[in-house]
Amino acid sequence: MPLLAVGTLAYDDVYTPYGEAKMIQGGSCSYIAMAAAQFVEPVQIVSVIGEDFKEEYLTDLKRRGADLEGVETIAGGKSFYWAGRYHDDMMGRDTLDTQLNVLADFDPKVPESYRNTDYIMLGNLTPAVQSRVLDQLDHRPKLVALDTMNFWMDVALDDLKVVLKRIDILIINDEEARQLSGELSLLTAAAKIVEMGPKILIIKKGEHGALLFEQDKVFSAPALLLPEVVDPTGAGDTFAGGLMGYLAASDDTSFENLKRAVIYGSAMASFVVEDFGPRRLRELDRAQIDKRVQRFVSLTNVAFH
């Protein structure tokens, strides 16, 4: 089963207490594709870049199993760019610069060969763009996941509510869940959000793990304590890529398999934060990933006699 990923391919400048990295590969689709390709291929990418986007980045994505037919290159254009500085606690960050460039007029074009894909990951973009992707599909996919953020809740809430009715999985963090629902309790927030459309809700809690909700079932995934977090950029997208890549590869959307997918997504995210950008993802193999998954399993493996 292929996975269709929609999002950004970009350049990032990142500053953290551990150093800095300038003009490195970034964007949601970079992280989603690199994580998902560990489990499934092809990862079909729909995105837009300028002529300045490095060919070596595209070649690397293709080598890993990405299909780039859906990546549009704008002649003379500049790729999306973001710069940010993380606080000393690595939890908060300040955006220093955002340049939409070719993303400002992004009108996604889903190639005909992608339109029957059953597993879709809609990366963080304007809700209207996410809806336009779904409009181009030939049939209702088995599973559509969507990532969004508080910015779209502020400026495009009506459009967001429309697209929420068309998806299966919503992936947001705890702050966004509280804002979208207007509730402080995450359990109450989850119930309200599910009423908006998505059958499944995943709430990321950073260093405190993740919560999975489906109907009356709840799963709490642990977080892995790491010696140091070098760069959290892309951790959420890496989580989503690992999650959806695992689900597409297994072609199993049961709650038990969703739980496994959340652990695999968490494991992938735990790798990416160990270095700047997606560098750590480039070094991974499946044996390393499975070994780390077992570390997650050991955190929750309790025997009662």
Structural write-up:
- The mean pLDDT is 96.
- It is built from eleven helices and 13 strands.
- It has helices at 28-36, 55-63, 127-135, 150-155, 157-164, 174-181, 186-195, 235-250, 255-272, 279-282, 286-300; strands spanning 3-6, 10-16, 19-26, 43-50, 66-74, 80-86, 93-99, 119-122, 143-147, 169-173, 200-204, 210-214, 217-221.
- A hairpin with a 2-residue loop joins strand 2 and strand 3 (19-26).
- 37% of the residues lie in helices and 26% in strands.
How much helicity do the residues have?
Answer: 25-40%
Radius of gyration: 18 Å
What would you call the structural class?
alpha/beta
Read across the widest sheet, the strand sequence of neighbours is 5-4-1-8-9-10-11-12-13
Number of helices: 11
Distance between the termini: 42 Å
Fraction in beta strands: 25-35%
Uncertain stretches of 5 or more adjacent residues: none
Q: What is the count of β-strands?
A: 13
Largest sheet: 9 strands, mixed
Order of helices and strands: EEEHEHEEEEHEHHEHHEEEHHHH
Mean pLDDT: 96
**Quick one: overall form?**
globular
